[in-house]
Specification:
75% helix; 9 helices; 0% strand
Length: 198
């Protein structure tokens, strides 16, 4: 599972990550320099190098922070009160749609998303965290509804993978967040139907 970077633990790191995120969104990864990040963090370049070896290291720290936060937000929403589909939609919105909206809104969003190879290991751990929490919610809902998923040829893990794979495909086809929410809601309805007693 992915660990959350507690940026409040070290105020200097927090300043660097917040400043770097603004600079990456404004100029893109390629055009951003360590000088730009140091200026945005209001510190000297040598002081910046004491905490991070290069801008890829900073990019990975930002990704770790954002991905970790999104898993925790999803977990919180899934464990909250309300109908399954509503809780799942809030979790998906927090973990995927809202988080990606900031990147997509940037003129350099495509470039930043192309950096996924430098954070592939983090994205894999992030997905693992989401799978764990979503599958647990699916399993709990099936049990509460008296639904035997195995008898339907399903499992909590299979439904979770279907949801996440569908959402991943949706992101490549739909860029508008409101349309993404509609498509996600349709996917969640299908899973909700599978979890309903016949």
């Amino acid at each position: 599972m992915i660990e959350i970077e507690d940026i409040t633990a070290d105020p200097k790191r927090a300043r660097i990550l917040e400043g770097a995120m603004k600079v990456f969104l404004a100029y893109g990864f390629a055009r951003t320099t360590m000088d730009d990040i140091a200026r945005a963090a209001e510190m000297s370049r040598p002081a910046l190098y004491l905490l991070f070896k290069n801008k890829t290291d900073i990019f990975r720290a930002i990704a770790l922070m954002l991905l970790g936060r999104s898993v925790e937000q999803a977990k919180t929403e899934l464990e909250s009160k309300g109908a399954f589909a509503e809780r799942m939609m809030r979790a998906v919105d927090a973990a995927l749609i809202s988080m990606m909206g900031v990147v997509h809104a940037s003129p350099h969003g495509a470039e930043l998303l192309d950096m996924k190879s430098s954070v592939a290991d983090l994205v894999g751990r992030w997905r693992g965290g989401l799978v764990e929490h979503i599958a647990k919610a699916v399993e709990s809902e099936a049990r509460q509804n008296g639904v035997d998923l195995a008898a339907k040829g399903l499992s909590a893990r299979l439904l979770t993978d279907m949801l996440l794979d569908g959402l991943e495909g949706m992101k490549t086809r739909i860029s508008d967040p409101s349309e993404q929410r509609q498509a996600a809601a349709a996917l969640i309805r299908v899973i909700d139907l599978a979890l309903s007693a016949e």
